[in-house]
Amino acid sequence: MEIILMKSTANRNLIFVAALLGAFYFQAVHAQPAKAGGVKSLQIASAAQGGGFHALATPLAPIWEKDLGVPVVVSTSRGSNENVALIERGEVTLAMVTGASQAEAWNGEGSFKKPYRNGRLMFAFYPSNAFFFTKADSGMNSVKDLKGKRVGLGPSAAVWDFYMGRILSAHGLEKGKDYTAVYADWTDMATQVGDGTLDASAALETTPAAYQLGEERGAKALTMDPAAVNKAVADYWYYFKGNIKAGSMPKGHKGGNFQTVGWMGPYMIAKKDLPDDLVYALTKSFHKHIKELNKSMNLYRWLADDEKIATMPLRNVEWHAGAVKYWKEAGLWQGK
Fold first, then answer.
1. What is the pLDDT of residues 287-307, one digit of tens each?
2. Cβ(273)–Cβ(203) below 8 Å
3. Which domain holds residue 120?
4. How many domains does the chain have?
């Protein structure tokens, strides 16, 4: 073995610095996978383009990529019910699901014939307030005027009959008998309303497509009958009386605040076997960037105003332990 003697203090210092840099590099490289819990990539199942789920996930993915150092892909789907199934089968690691769909899936209710319990809650985004809209110059003014019309309900029957179809039922309108239901993504339905090929479409306060139509051509929201709103809230546990501020309605809306039906959703859910430290890091990153996210997408405005919305309890549905740990440390946990 050859031994090389150090000839000067300068040389010794140089080698010492190089050794330190090498150690830091080694730690940085080898610490990165641990930060992501050994997971090499993440996929968020959202919903159709032009809708709220996809709009929320799109700016969040690059933030998670930067903070955790793993690729994060946002995929489209037919919405909540499909996302529950994707999580259950382990085909995605993360998904966005409305509160009602997740609660019914967890308990094997409604369209879910058995309990689906592979998903765990991480955080909630906002309340969903619904409305139906048509062209600004339409002769229709109320939801009851939809009798005999072609009405867009949402991207899929499985999800949107559950939400929008039941609002129409509360108004005495039954699919097939009183109106023709059309299913397409939110952007397509708004385009068809603008073109006149669709009489009206459902929307949420959080779906950008209806608001884009309002900017381009104007849009009219159809008023809901107060008795029908009361009936819907009485008949289904997940509905509540909603209110959309006049300034938050699509351009072309006339009148004051809009009285409607709402429900809690969506939630971000994670596979139950995702490492606790990974879900903790994802949740912390999300919370830390809420104000930044709100600047790029105003669907985060509810959380920017009240961060406790993130931990709204959902019946008996379980939360991921990693998320619970973070929200407790942040002082925002509302669960038991």
1. 999 999 999 998 899 999 999
2. no
3. 35-126+265-329
4. 2
